[in-house]
Write a structure and sequence with these properties.
The protein has one domain. It is built from 9 helices and no strands. It is elongated, with a radius of gyration of 19 Å.
């Protein structure tokens, strides 16, 4: 592993920026496919498509809230681990990553409990109406159960990129996006699960990414 990322200490900064930035930016763009693909399929659900699409849109702030906690931990831990690796202190870098992983698990369990207990009140706070709350609650009731996978995937992927393996980090996101594209029509239309199917497809896709990243 140390030999694989020796280029971090030998290549010019400009070349490193291109080598690391392009896959990282691509991963961010690919990550947007989760929501875009869900909305495309949900919008084609027939007569209820409009209301379902609005309900999922209301759930977006809650989803971003979940992702923010992953960023909170990884944005502090991954750079610190990079500093330790730069000093040659691999053990300290591993401890940092392990501590962040444990924190993500704890935060995931806490967020899951909050979302399960206060699902509908939170969605109503963010603007759900009587017409859309059903769709929003159905989507989030399934999505909440996959909070652990979201936190682990987003949080630990930052450590992969921090070690110089930006392409591997991009693959983590790409694998999940491809799975989501394939599973969405299966659950939404073939199994007639509607917005719950869209959420389940997203959760399973994140689970695949989480297995890959760990």
């Amino acid at each position: 592993m140390e030999k694989d990322n020796e280029f971090l200490g030998t290549e010019p900064v400009g070349r490193l920026l291109w080598r690391l930035a392009i896959p990282t930016i691509a991963a961010q763009v690919i990550n947007m496919l989760y929501n875009v693909v869900d909305r495309i399929y949900i919008g084609h659900m027939g007569a209820e498509g409009d209301m379902a699409l609005t309900g999922v849109g209301v759930a977006m702030p809650v989803i971003l809230f979940i992702s923010a906690f992953a960023a909170l931990i990884s944005s502090g831990g991954a750079p610190r681990a990079s500093i330790f690796m730069g000093r040659g202190d691999t053990r300290a870098a591993e401890r940092t990553m392990g501590g962040c992983f444990t924190a993500q698990i704890i935060v995931s369990l806490a967020l899951t409990a909050v979302l399960v207990v206060w699902n509908r009140p939170l969605l109503l706070t963010f603007g759900a109406s009587e017409n859309t709350i059903g769709y929003a609650a159905d989507y989030m009731s399934v999505y909440a159960l996959g909070t652990l996978f979201v936190e682990v995937t987003l949080g630990m992927n930052a450590f992969i990129t921090a070690q110089g393996f930006a392409r591997t980090g991009m693959l983590t996101v790409l694998i999940g996006a491809v799975c989501n594209i394939a599973l969405d029509p299966l659950f939404i239309f073939a199994f007639h699960m509607g917005v719950r199917g869209a959420a389940l497809a997203t959760v399973l896709s994140q689970a695949v990414s989480a297995v890959w990243v760990t």
